[in-house]
Amino acid sequence: MEVWHAGPWPWFLAGPVIGLFVPALLLIDNKVFGISSNLRHICSAVAPAGIKYFRYDWKKTGLWNLVFLTGVLLGGFLASHWATPHDIAISESTRAALTKLGIHDFSGVAPREIFNWDALLTLRGFVSVIVGGFLVGFGTAYAGGCTSGHAISGLANLQLPSLIAVLGFFAGGLLATFSLLPLLFRI
Amino acid sequence: MMTTTPPIATTPRDPRNNRPEFLIVYLVLGIAFGVVLTKSEVLSWFRIQEMFRFQSFRMFGIIASAIATAAISIALIKRASITAASGELISLPEKELGHGVRYALGGSIFGLGWALTGACPGPLFVLVGNGITVMLAAILSALLGTWVYGWVRPKLPH
What we know:
The complex is a heterodimer. Chain A has nine helices and no strands. By secondary structure, chain A is mostly helical. In chain A, α8 (about 145-155) packs antiparallel against α9. In chain A, about 50% of the residues are buried. Chain B contains six helices and no strands. Chain B is globular. The chains are: A mainly alpha, B mainly alpha.
């Protein structure tokens, strides 16, 4: 069980293991690896509201993926409880840049001063969690995929639309990092 | 580019057969994925910031080697033209380009959200598992985002 207590996996172990989920799902039952479809399946199950985009048999097409997603949450729980907690060893330059932004707490996987329930009532907490979450849901549905569906499944299958989407991911991410965050965190 | 827009697929991939006994396999694979996203620190807001600031090779190494591994696997599967364990023939759908607007615009909108939350959809759930329960609010908001997309979809350029 050494692997649980050891620190974070090196990139050259983590990347290939993530990539292997693509052939694993194909080889089991011709399923395409992609997480964001689940958001659509849940909307279809819970609040289809007569909208055409949500009118399909979500159980038939998406039950497998929703079960996978449930596992993802459980996996996060198990891994975080078995492992010894440690700070994320980000580079000194990132730490300096984030300190300049006003981040003080570098313990845990995400800054506690932004990602907690009380902070939802602050502007930066609300924008990071609620606005950010909305954009993730809207953007992935519009683009038809997220990091797993486009960046990994799509690019690995040499899909031009996925390349455009991934360039978009970075365009949006850079805009948020260098324009939105400095504005948001200095208010 | 042609002037007519090809119809964008309106229903997700529709499997001919669904094997209930496979659900346990998906649960186990999902757990493995949650563990991997935690152990690789891909779930971390700090790592995503480091990536968008180009201050470490780590995230790029992870994404690039994941793509390479998946690409080699897909190429091998295609060459062998094998059937899945379920008996279904393995086929990968081609994504329709259309005008490409949905990919550029939708991708950029997701990118904004990715940097703000520090999480793509998978990590949102892994973070809840890791005890960052406020991400439940981000997930609810993401569901609302997807719902609003479905609602305004007919009016959006694709």
